[in-house]
Amino acid sequence: MKYPKMGTRQLYLLEERIKTFKNWPFDEKSRCNIRNMAEAGFYSVATSTEDVDATKCFLCGKELDGWESFDDPWAEHRSHAAKCAFVQIGKNEDELSFSEFLSIVKQYMINEVNQIGGQQKEIIDEKLKAIKRKYRGRK
Ligand SMILES: [Zn+2]
Fold first, then answer.
1. How far away, in angstroms, is 1 Cα from ligand 1 center?
2. Which CATH number belongs to the domain containing residue 96 in this structure?
3. Distance, CA 46 to ligand 1 centroid (Å)?
4. What is the CA(139)–ligand 1 centre distance, in A?
5. 134 CA distance to ligand 1 centroid (A)?
6. How would you write the pLDDT of the chain (139 residues) with one tens digit per residue?
7. Is residue 54 included in any domain, yes or no?
8. How far is the CA of 67 from the centre of ligand 1 (A)?
9. Closest listed residue to residue 82, CA positions, set 102, 62, 53, 109
10. Residue 6: inside a domain, yes or no?
11. Does residue 45 sit within a domain?
């Protein structure tokens, strides 16, 4: 059985998000260039040439694709996920105060723990199902 590892990626860091963009279809002149995308909280979740512009917010998990070169990543993030804590702070990494940065890292880690918790729950549910199958018919 494979257990998820925690903290393998530090996507709350701008540089880590930038690194995820491998075959991004837009150049530097585009408004949704890699840097602007990463600054607005997005990282690439592309898996093939079919979904090169698939992105996800590192904090709220909102997935967006179908980007156009003139799209403003911050504006798109705001309009699709207004409640995102990163959107609510709404600053690029170098403008964040240390306490703002810490609150973002904390939220990221809480999300990660919840996600791992969910995966563990699924594993437990699967095990319970197997036990139920095995002992089906017993009283
Ligand atoms: Zn978000």
1. 31
2. 1.10.1170.10
3. 17
4. 49
5. 43
6. 454 455 568 999 999 999 999 999 999 999 999 999 999 999 999 999 899 999 999 999 999 999 999 999 999 999 999 999 999 999 999 999 999 999 999 999 999 899 889 999 999 999 999 999 999 877 6
7. yes
8. 16
9. 62
10. no
11. yes
